[in-house]
Amino acid sequence: MAVEPQTMSSERYHGPLSTRYSDNTAITLAQKKRRKINARTLLSYLLLSGVSLVLLMPLLWMFFTSLKPMSEIVQFPPTFFPKSIQWENYLTAINAFPFWSYAKNTIIIAGFVVISNVLSNSFIAYGFAKLEFPGKRFLFALVLSTMMVPGFVTMIPQYVIFSKIGWVGTYLPLIVPSFFGNAFNIFLMRQFYLSIGDELIEAAKMDGANHLYIWSHLMIPLTKPALITIAINSFNGAWNDFLGPLIYIKDQNQYKLQIGLQVFKNQSTTEWHYLMAGAVMVLLPSILLFFFAQKYFIEGMDLTAGSKG
Amino acid sequence: MQKRSLRQKREARWGYLFVAPFIIGFVVFMLGPMLFSFIGSFTDYNLTSKMNFIGLGNFRRMFLEDQLFWKSLYNTLYFTIFNVPMTTVFSIFLAVILNQKLKGIRVFRTIFFLPLILSGVAVYILWMQLLSPSSGMVNTILSWFSIKGPSWLFDPNWTKPALIMMKLWSAGGAMLLYIATLQNVPTQLYESAELDGANTWHKFRHVTLPMITPIIFYDVITSTIGSFQIFQEAYVMTNNGQGGPANSLLFFNLHMWNKAFVGFDMGYAMAMSMTLFVIVSILTIINLKLAPRWVHYAGGNQ
């Protein structure tokens, strides 16, 4: 009952039973196994494609609706693919509210948020990752515990503070808090620092460099991937932030795109072709950013995930 | 020895300098506001003219008189009870089917992640159209199967299921964490399970699931806190926070918002925010207490 080595290898998972069969049976079993694998691969692809279709449908529907004339939307049942394509819907949507000026406001706010988030979290995390001081463990636990406090608990008193110092109606309440770091980004940066050896820091200290210099000249270049991750996520967050500007921005000229779109929605309740065109325009930067920088979106998450469990 | 402790002291001074922004931010934007909220919840503060101590007046009003408070709490619990398990199961499902070595899996990964990074008003408007009773995608698809779909956002019985469906589309955020963990599961575990004749379900149930329980635990805690904070969706989708038909979308935070920024009943709103904090803390503690029963940590029970 000699079994050929190659049969053995493809039979490995069948366990001791397979050795009892003759060579021929073993081969058919292996073929069966292979066929089973093919069937399973096919099933996997079917499942993946089905789920993808379900997840993509809303976005496709949005895009197709944005190109339809109103008549195709209100007919029953509505068309799926637009019969006649109306790119003008986009022009109408953009001209329905000060789209470009709101986009400019949004970019200004997002720009400041990105810079302050990158600098503050990188700075703070360096202290937690590379320096020893009494109370460090407690402070880091405090960082993590802030993740558990609902934003709405501090929202009202924060508003009171900002209104007392006259910041309501300015962009400052949307920008300034990001100069003080946030738990998720501190955690992410700290993980990245911990993956960098201390030899470099020791060597720099020998050369007489202080920590401020080490952070700004050695660490910032070395942690670029993590910084890009923070920058991209902060931009996406600031671009889509609705609650902040809803509370603090009163003057129409200072509106962000999110608020502009909301006002546009309230004015044109069922003009879905224009509303969908507006929605596509507002979502487009996020979508493009995701396609070009997907790696960083995902790396950011992987980095934090690796340390858990 | 003396010299070393001097060095340590210098390093500690640098350490405090680096974490100082966090400490300042924590005091100014979190601890201070929470103390203010705590004190304010016992007053009739209205931002401009008055701040008198009224003892437990706000809480008495909240629990005994304000019917909308209970309605909002009910709506929020309803949403949380369905949203948390559904998004958790959905995230795990997505992660498991993505965690295969197949050609082109990156394309699927991109598609699966896309809804997660989209948020804000545009997404809510998109869903208002998808859920539109006559011209929306959901009811159009249902009509292909000769099903007459409900009026979703216009029918008080269907508003919350509509929102739960919408959140399911975009709430697989923990999927990434699950994938990262799944990739760390040693392949020998699966191989030895196969030797024992385990099928796909057995392998998932007895190998995969135990290995990802720490992430499930983390996911459940954060998504419970997240679900309790539902606000923007309801605000945008019910015409500036009116609460929808029969107040069926008046969630806890929406009610608090209306008290604070529409009525400027700040004292009462702060009492609500303190109540929110207590509820979320209790839920977190319950989760922590229950964790040892089902969370499996590699390398022994802790």
UniProtKB/TrEMBL annotation, chain A:
<comment type="similarity">
    <text>Belongs to the binding-protein-dependent transport system permease family.</text>
</comment>
<dbReference type="GO" id="GO:0055085">
    <property type="term" value="P:transmembrane transport"/>
</dbReference>
<protein>
    <submittedName>
        <fullName>L-arabinose transport system permease AraQ</fullName>
    </submittedName>
</protein>
<feature type="domain" description="ABC transmembrane type-1">
    <location>
        <begin position="103"/>
        <end position="293"/>
    </location>
</feature>
<dbReference type="InterPro" id="IPR000515">
    <property type="entry name" value="MetI-like"/>
</dbReference>
<feature type="transmembrane region" description="Helical">
    <location>
        <begin position="138"/>
        <end position="162"/>
    </location>
</feature>
<keyword id="KW-0813">Transport</keyword>
<feature type="transmembrane region" description="Helical">
    <location>
        <begin position="107"/>
        <end position="126"/>
    </location>
</feature>
<feature type="transmembrane region" description="Helical">
    <location>
        <begin position="42"/>
        <end position="64"/>
    </location>
</feature>
<feature type="transmembrane region" description="Helical">
    <location>
        <begin position="168"/>
        <end position="188"/>
    </location>
</feature>
<feature type="transmembrane region" description="Helical">
    <location>
        <begin position="274"/>
        <end position="293"/>
    </location>
</feature>
<dbReference type="InterPro" id="IPR035906">
    <property type="entry name" value="MetI-like_sf"/>
</dbReference>
<keyword id="KW-1003">Cell membrane</keyword>
<keyword id="KW-1133">Transmembrane helix</keyword>
<keyword id="KW-0472">Membrane</keyword>
<dbReference type="GO" id="GO:0005886">
    <property type="term" value="C:plasma membrane"/>
</dbReference>
<keyword id="KW-0812">Transmembrane</keyword>
<dbReference type="Pfam" id="PF00528">
    <property type="entry name" value="BPD_transp_1"/>
</dbReference>
From TrEMBL, chain B:
<comment type="similarity">
    <text>Belongs to the binding-protein-dependent transport system permease family.</text>
</comment>
<keyword id="KW-1003">Cell membrane</keyword>
<protein>
    <submittedName>
        <fullName>Sugar ABC transporter permease</fullName>
    </submittedName>
</protein>
<keyword id="KW-0812">Transmembrane</keyword>
<dbReference type="GO" id="GO:0005886">
    <property type="term" value="C:plasma membrane"/>
</dbReference>
<keyword id="KW-0472">Membrane</keyword>
<dbReference type="InterPro" id="IPR035906">
    <property type="entry name" value="MetI-like_sf"/>
</dbReference>
<feature type="transmembrane region" description="Helical">
    <location>
        <begin position="162"/>
        <end position="180"/>
    </location>
</feature>
<feature type="transmembrane region" description="Helical">
    <location>
        <begin position="211"/>
        <end position="231"/>
    </location>
</feature>
<feature type="transmembrane region" description="Helical">
    <location>
        <begin position="110"/>
        <end position="130"/>
    </location>
</feature>
<dbReference type="GO" id="GO:0055085">
    <property type="term" value="P:transmembrane transport"/>
</dbReference>
<keyword id="KW-1133">Transmembrane helix</keyword>
<keyword id="KW-0813">Transport</keyword>
<feature type="transmembrane region" description="Helical">
    <location>
        <begin position="12"/>
        <end position="39"/>
    </location>
</feature>
<feature type="domain" description="ABC transmembrane type-1">
    <location>
        <begin position="73"/>
        <end position="287"/>
    </location>
</feature>
<feature type="transmembrane region" description="Helical">
    <location>
        <begin position="77"/>
        <end position="98"/>
    </location>
</feature>
<dbReference type="InterPro" id="IPR051393">
    <property type="entry name" value="ABC_transporter_permease"/>
</dbReference>
<feature type="transmembrane region" description="Helical">
    <location>
        <begin position="266"/>
        <end position="286"/>
    </location>
</feature>
<dbReference type="Pfam" id="PF00528">
    <property type="entry name" value="BPD_transp_1"/>
</dbReference>
<dbReference type="InterPro" id="IPR000515">
    <property type="entry name" value="MetI-like"/>
</dbReference>
